[in-house]
Write a structure and sequence with these properties.
Elements (H helix, E strand, L loop, with lengths): L4 E7 L3 H12 L4 E5 L22 H13 L4 E4 L2 E5 L3 E4 L4 E9 L4 E3 L6 H4 L4 E2 L2 H4 L8 E4 L5 H8 L6 E4 L7 H9 L3 E3 L3 E6 L4 E6 L4 E3 L2 E4 L2 E3 L5 H5 L22 E3 L10 H32 L29
Length: 334
């Protein structure tokens, strides 16, 4: 195999990408992980809900994951992918070009936040999005939920699980009568009027100021962000079918509509948490390896029929678990 030729190129080195690389490296595949170094959860001090890693800094998880995968021969490339040509020729910003038999997209997702002063600065600190990730840390505190995108009222009902003192700031949200009735029934205070800014003192959120000058004391505010596919054009360039929101259509293993291209983590499931993304990366890796095992077997039979054989790229053992056994139902490609 050529120096810049890989069994799998993983685009994105977050939880999904590194989890996939770990499985593939242990399967003795030649793998490169290309990562631009801009994780979605970088502003957060801790991540939660990951069994055995609860409370770990996100950067710590990635650092440990990178150490683990390199121990199995996975190559880490700190660069940005500019494009992927037919035949899976991957171009990176640094000028290098590599080829791959299979591609795993794990580039994550972008967050669309309300245009309110202070939002970006407090994002991941005391301006929060996921109660399952951050609710315990702010339990029983005076909390707010900022209305903006569809589903904001339901988000307030969810946040109510962690505190008896929740204020729903309607802001620009179109609150339906049925939603208001639910909020009031759950003793969530509804405050009308647009939000002007988040009030911060000594690097700590203390309140929410409305355009009419009112300030409602709060120590943390939740917002349900919009999830936006990255505008890198990589999935579109590969020809992957996408839904109306722009996310790729995938099967249960993460296989896209393009043979040889998988997607895992937030790039395919914007609501996935860190542990969910890691699991999706593992599932995709198992499917990718099974696909390659099948192709290697087909190629070996073809070589025998021609009266010669070629050396194996690397030793590979047939999977023993029926759930990951290679089948001949996969698309036929190199």
């Amino acid at each position: 195999m050529k120096e810049d030729a890989y069994d799998v190129v993983v685009v994105g080195g977050g939880a999904a990408g590194l989890s996939a690389a770990l499985v593939l490296g242990r399967a003795r595949r030649r793998v490169a992980v290309i990562d631009a170094g801009a994780p979605r959860n970088a502003p957060a001090a801790h991540m939660h809900g990951f069994l055995s890693r609860d409370g770990m800094p996100p950067a710590g998880l990635l650092a440990q994951g990178r150490d683990e995968v390199t121990g199995y021969g996975v190559e880490l490339v700190n660069d940005q992918v500019l494009g992927i040509e037919p035949g899976f020729v991957v171009r990176v910003a640094g000028g290098r070009t590599v080829t791959a038999r299979r591609i795993l997209m794990a580039t994550g997702v972008g967050d669309e936040l309300p245009d309110v002063p202070g939002i970006r600065q407090r994002w991941g600190k005391d301006l929060l999005h996921c109660p399952y990730c951050h609710g315990w840390e702010v339990r029983d505190q005076p909390l707010g939920v900022l209305g903006a995108l569809p589903g904001s009222a339901q988000h307030a009902l969810l946040v109510r699980q962690w505190s008896d003192d929740v204020v729903f700031f309607v802001h620009t949200y179109h609150l339906m009568p049925a939603e208001q009735h639910q909020l009031e029934a759950r003793r969530i205070r509804v405050v009308s009027g647009e939000v002007a800014r988040l009030v911060v003192q000594d690097d700590r959120l203390t309140g929410v100021e409305l355009t009419d000058g009112r300030v409602i004391a709060r120590t943390a505010v939740f917002v349900r962000p919009g999830n936006l596919p990255h505008d890198d054009g990589l999935l579109a360039g590969l020809g992957c079918e996408r839904n109306e929101a722009g996310f790729p259509l995938v099967d249960g293993t993460g296989l896209t509509s393009v043979p040889g291209v998988w997607a895992a983590g937030n790039v395919a499931d914007p609501r996935a948490q860190v542990i969910t993304s890691a699991g999706a990366g593992s599932a995709a890796a198992i499917a990718i390896n099974a696909d390659l095992v099948q192709k290697d077997a087909e190629q070996a039979i073809a070589d025998l029929a021609e009266g010669h054989s070629r050396p194996l790229r690397r030793p590979a053992s047939a999977p023993s678990c029926p759930a990951i056994a290679a089948t001949d139902s996969r698309p036929k490609f190199p």
